[in-house]
Amino acid sequence: MNPDKKIIINGLLDRVNASPYLIVIDYTGLTVKQFTELRNRLDAGGAQCTVAKNSYMRKALAEAGMPDIGNDLVGQMAYVMGQSEVFSAAKVIKNFEKEFKKPEMKVGILGNAVLDAEKLKAIADIPSREAVLSQLLATILEPATRIARIVQNKFNPEGESSSVETPAAEAVADEAPAAEVVAEATPVAEAEAETPAAE
Question: How many CB atoms neighbour CB 58 within 10 A?
Answer without folding.
Answer: 17
